[in-house]
Amino acid sequence: MQQLVTNERLQQRVEALRSGILSLREYHKTLQSRMNAVEYYIKAFVSEPTRWDRIDRERNALLSQTSTPKPPLYGVPIGVKDIMHATGFVTQAGADVPPAEITDTQATVVTRLREAGALVMGKTRTAEFAYFHPPRTRNPVDLEHTPGGSSSGSAAAVAAGLCPVALGTQTGGSITRPAAFCGIVGVKPSYDRIPTDGVLPLAPSVDHVGYFTQDIASAQLVGPVLYPNWQNNVNTDDLETIGVVNGTYLQQASDTAISHFERHVDQLQEHGYEVRRLSVFKDVEAINTRHRKLMAAEAALSHSHLYPRYKKQYASETAELIESGQNVDIATLTSARNGRHQLRTQLNTTFDEHALDIIISPAAPGPAPKGIDSTGDPIMNLPWTHSGLPTVTLPASTTSAGLPIGLQCAAPFGSDEQLLQHTAQLESVLDHNRLV
Predict the structure, then answer these.
(1) Contact by Cβ (8 Å): 436, 407
(2) In 3D, which of 394, 405, 401 has the Cα closest to residue 428?
(3) How far apart (Å, rounded) are the C-alpha atoms in residues 233 and 216?
(4) How many whole angstroms separate alpha carbon 172 and alpha carbon 165?
(5) Do 300 and 206 touch, CB atoms closer than 8 A?
(6) CA angle, 76 as apex, 73 and 185 as ends, to 5°?
(7) Nearest to 218 by CA among 62, 413, 414, 72
(8) Residue 35 C-alpha from the chain's centroid
(9) Would 393 disulfide with which of 66, 186, 273, 300, CB 3.0-4.6 Å?
(10) Domain 10-226 carries which CATH code?
């Protein structure tokens, strides 16, 4: 197994860069050497022959204009999923459609990161139009395995240490699953808390913009930049009570995933947390079906201007989604959209009635599948995406083959800040008691 992961934690780099202990030139030169060594193998980024000339120019511009104190992400290179528009870059969306057909103004999330001092390392590879047709990206943990998708390149880039933070999106499981497969942190916010303008839509009612880092402390640094209404002074009690999923939802996972999950639960109980087992989703198959119909119907609407003209350029997976969505009637679509709010209310009530701080579940049905012709199954993520509740993926353990297993942590709608604080506590337990 050829492993290409390395430590590249944002918090450590930011402190060194802002204090001047580490110069921007030295840091960027280190990353350039790193990219030269590993990008050939993992293919996380869209090709850009003049990447480092551009970054040199942008760094010099930053050095000439930066005041004191330095901005929060001073000189930090970021990965931008290639369905997000960024000034100076073409958006290809992993597709063969002419880029001129999908141009737009720069995404707000990219603007906010740039205003915070970040530099765009490049566009990261994505499954076609953020659905299932995979890019050529490989998992840096094991090159024979998928990194997940559709935010394939973003997760791989962060895991490989090519950039300490990268943007992703989730409409099914495209942040949670890649984070789990690559052994990093993935943040899927509450629906609509991070702006989605300037991002190619797949299914706007369930599209989320989120991000990847290597640890929670780094995710907490990025939060105030990406969230327009981030609450810095939220008082969060210590994590005490954890809901643990049970029933048919859990049974969707593989024996390997469930075995690791139960060991994580035991580990948390031994550490003193109160655990309450719940059948959180009463009819998970109905939720999954509703979500798939919503995705298909809205994908058909989102691509109604492109698909008729460029049908032959679409991959079969995306074409099948769009064509199935064309057959969803308005009553079914309306019902599916309403179902999001009903599920959100139900889950928030579950948190209240059982006095839960978070609910944990497997982040994926198992470790990353072998091969790169598929990005894996988002089945464990669909209900959380459908409801719009915030989730954070934590690397929790590894299989005997060395593949990461992730823990999916959810909190009430809108409580993203509290969720990051609570997962920081869980991360400490998991890091010090890492299971294999």
Answers:
(1) no
(2) 394
(3) 17
(4) 21
(5) no
(6) 85
(7) 72
(8) 21
(9) 186
(10) 3.90.1300.10
Whole-number Å distance between alpha carbons of 391 and 412: 9
What number of other Cβ atoms are within 10 A of residue 363's Cβ?
Answer: 32
Residue type, 325: G
Task: Write down the residue that tokens 């999916």 correspond to.
Answer: 408
Sheet holding 77-81, edge to edge: 119-124, 77-81, 165-170, 208-213, 185-188, 391-398, 404-410, 358-362, 241-245, 274-278
Query: Cα(156)–Cα(151) distance, rounded to whole angstroms?
Result: 9
Crossing angle of the two packed helices 255-270 and 416-432, in degrees rounded to 10 = 90
In this prediction, residue 80 carries a pLDDT of 99
The confidence score (pLDDT) of residue 435 equals 57
CA–CA distance from 133 to each of 93, 264, 326, 372 (Å)? 11, 33, 19, 10
For the beta carbon of residue 349, count every other beta carbon within 10 angstroms: 11
Quote the tokens at residue 325.
Answer: 């969505």
Quote the tokens at residue 78: 């970021």
- Please list the residue range(s) of the chain that carry CATH number 3.90.1300.10: 10-226
Q: Is 45 helix (H, G, I), strand (E, B) or coil?
A: strand
Tokens of 131: 């659905």
- Predicted pLDDT at 234: 81
What pLDDT, on the 0 to 100 scale, is given for residue 434? 61
Which pLDDT value is given to residue 130?
Answer: 98
For residue 141, give every residue at least 6 positions away whose Cβ sits within 8 Å of its Cβ, in sequence order, or none: 3, 4, 5, 159, 181, 182, 183, 368, 402, 403, 404
Quote the tokens at residue 287.
């939720």
φ/ψ bin of 163: left (φ > 0), alpha (ψ from -120 to 50), beta (otherwise): beta
Bond before 228 cis per omega within 30 degrees: no
Strand partners, 166: 79, 212
How many angstroms separate the CA atoms of 78 and 188, rounded?
17
Strands 77-81 and 274-278: unpaired
**Contacts by residues 101-106 (CB-CB < 8 Å, ≥ 24 positions apart):** 101/306, 101/310, 102/200, 102/306, 104/198, 104/200, 105/198, 106/198
Cα distances (Å, whole numbers) of residue 277 to 141, 176, 194, 359: 32, 22, 31, 9
Q: Which of 163, 201, 175, 182 is nearest to 32 (CA)?
A: 163
Angle at the Cα of 32 from the Cα atoms of 19 and 11, rounded to 5 degrees:
35
Q: In the chain, which stretches have pLDDT less than 50?
A: 1
Q: CA-CA distance, 116 to 105, in Å (whole number)?
A: 19
